[in-house]
Amino acid sequence: MATESGTANPRDNVTTHPGRCVSSVEYDEQVMSDGWSTNALPVGDQLAFWHDVVCATFVPLDVATPGSGPFSGSLSSHRVGSLRMAAVGADPHRVTRGKRLITSGDEYLHIGLLCKGQAVVEQDERQALLHPGDLAFYDTTRPFMLGFREPMEWKVFMLPRRLLSVPEADLRRMSAQAVRGDDGVGRLVNPFLARLAEQCGPYGEESGARLAAGAVCLLETLVAERSGRQELTAGADQLSLRIRAFIDEHLPDPGLSPESIARAHRISVRYLHKLFQHDGTTVHRRIQQRRLEEARRELSKQGRAAVTIASVAHRWGFADAAHFSRSFRAAYDMTPREWREFGSSAARDAHTGTVT
Hints:
- The chain contains 13 helices and twelve strands.
- The chain is an alpha+beta fold and 356 residues long.
- The protein has a six-stranded antiparallel β-sheet, with helices on one face.
- Helix 7 crosses helix 8.
């Protein structure tokens, strides 16, 4: 295991609690703005409760502490657009995600930002030591370990892997790599994420979606910088951000196309495709992905049962309802109707920030 100098082994003299991972439904009533805390529980129940809390909020994990004494931990979570965030404060402990806990549906990328203490992040045979202000990526589809050897404060940003339009190889190289808060793009990204986590709203739906999109764009820029793919100029990067915002604004327009986008920005269609190729995607894929995301969000809202699938498809720029249904099923492994039937449950999970 490659290790940064001075990193202590977080696996020494621990008490483990694999336990069970409760379903998100059991915690629906507790996932509020005031979050969870172990402080009011008997000492003998604190670690088991903490294990269930982190599993219900993130993904199935094993938890270990340095001893069997009292354990203080608090956690709260909220959502801004497509980005889920959690604030964690706790005594020294370690969480581990082994192969036996990974399922095919857990395709979430986590970005951990350290605010207090020290953290060790291990994944893909790499280990990063984080100090306050630093962040690191870790992918929930592969084993990882997070170790905290002193009292800590930790912000976690969770987003579906598919939202980042970057090559898979570049994203893999980011895992368990320390991104310093005082270096390169980290000087912009890290403080932005910290403030976004601290100011949890209330944001309107449109404002939340734009803030989340801004965070995703910054993370994509960070990955591009770290991967060494910087052939585009700063001006081109700004143009790419404006084009993404233009696409989001015109999603309901069935005439939205590479030609109309290029014309609105006074560039050639060829150059437009080059911009998106740099980000590891295509113009058509980006438009369809965003339309499907917005349609999915609308279908998951409570009280929308009277809205027809066809009307939702047309509202988000799909000229043909059958094409919309096929595309939706290909993206989410269920039909729009099936998604709407389970919409109430999905909406509660989205609001509480839980992963089942």
